[in-house]
From TrEMBL:
<protein>
    <submittedName>
        <fullName>Uncharacterized protein</fullName>
    </submittedName>
</protein>
């Protein structure tokens, strides 16, 4: 039969949409595994010396991250009915029913009927840094001949100051974490060692960063994800 297309909105580069799942029988399972996205974020970012709250590291976002979607479960079946708004591994859950904390959402997922608010972070984003006499404050390695991988964000420097600003504004999807890739620095792209030279020599830099989360994906999921992002970005 006909059905209403799912309302998908874009918020600051993120794609956001709601999914309602309901267990009608005891056999029904929501059919997805999720992890604590706040804890995962905090592990990838050191305590900041750019922050007055020295006793604690930067706080991560109140999200769950979808790790796996099981075949035959309610979410898998929902995906098959809504190809235009499929949920994929690495999508964030930022609300379950009306709960918006990690603990509240994990509790609420045990209900028989759940409305999940999903958010997909942009694959690429731009970061502007100025050294102002400081170091940029991150370590890199070549990820390929073309781009660099951030191996560590240091507790002090321009990058951490930028990250703290994003965190304070709730822009978690714009924070640079270890394992992300730098594809471009100012006008330099396509050559990892030239990008590294540019980072070393410049006093300010505009970088294109790739989230690079599909290190956790199967090849099929990578293709599916790119197809969907392409569909949204027309």
């Amino acid at each position: 039969g006909t059905r209403e297309p799912i309302q998908v909105e874009e918020v600051d580069g993120c794609i956001v949409w709601d999914v309602t799942l309901k267990k009608d029988t005891v056999e029904d399972k929501f059919g997805f595994a999720q992890v604590n996205g706040r804890a995962e974020f905090e592990v990838r970012l050191p305590r900041s010396e750019e922050s007055p709250r020295l006793d604690e590291g930067p706080r991560g976002p109140e999200v769950l991250i979808v790790r796996r979607i099981n075949e035959g479960g309610l979410l898998h079946r929902w995906n098959e009915r809504h190809p235009e708004a499929q949920v994929l591994p690495q999508d964030r859950i930022c609300a379950v029913n009306h709960e918006t904390t990690v603990e509240g959402m994990q509790r609420e997922i045990r209900s028989r009927r759940i409305t999940l608010r999903f958010m997909r972070y942009p694959e690429h984003f731009t970061v502007n840094l100025r050294k102002n006499g400081r170091k940029l404050g991150f370590r890199i390695q070549p990820a390929s001949l073309q781009d660099l991988r951030v191996t560590e964000v240091l507790p002090v420097g321009a990058m951490m100051a930028y990250n703290m600003e994003q965190i304070d504004g709730g822009r978690w999807h714009r924070v640079v974490l270890s394992d992300m890739c730098i594809e471009k620095a100012n006008a330099i792209q396509g050559d990892a060692s030239a990008i590294a030279e540019e980072l070393k020599g410049c006093s300010e830099v505009r970088m294109r960063v790739r989230r690079n989360e599909h290190v956790f994906f199967s090849p099929q999921q990578v293709r599916q994800r790119l197809r969907m992002l392409a569909a949204f970005n027309g």
